[in-house]
Give the backbone structure.
Amino acid sequence: MYVLSWLSLFIQVAFITLAIAARLYYLAELIEEYTVATSRVIEYAVWFSTAVLIGLYVFECFPTYMIGVGLFLAYLVYFGLLQTFPFIMLTSPNFILSCGLVVVNHYLAFQFFAEEYYPFLEVLPYFTFCLWIIPFAFFVSLSAGENVLPATMQPGDDVVSDYFIKGKRGKRLGILVVFSFIKEAILPSRQKIY
């Protein structure tokens, strides 16, 4: 019975992992299809996160440095990333700054919640709404800029010259490539023979 319990646990974890991967793949496809709506959703999430941070500062007396880093991250960095959305350059200073500040913000939150006792059901909403939702939305939407029509490219990009110089853009980057690779590894497609 002991071996069967471990085997069933392994199978359940595998099914849950596949379900999460399929949902992320579907979510990435939706984001690629509706980039304007995604930009609005991320903008509203930033405003909501800002309101939550201000509320925590006013009503719960959270530390000023932790709220300050969160507000700086929300206002300057995330809104800066939204200015060029869906085109997010991984080497841009704004993106690198956002990654660094997310790590700093997590460190400050872990340090605060280690010193101050809050029940887990109160800590989880802070992490969800103030730390995880917006970076997760940007992470899933990294591949959204690859399939946008050429008319909406950034100024200065010459799509026709770029096509002939670099060749056909058959390469896809981002999270969809990872999911496509996993899908092909698990369920290889069949070739039609004529």
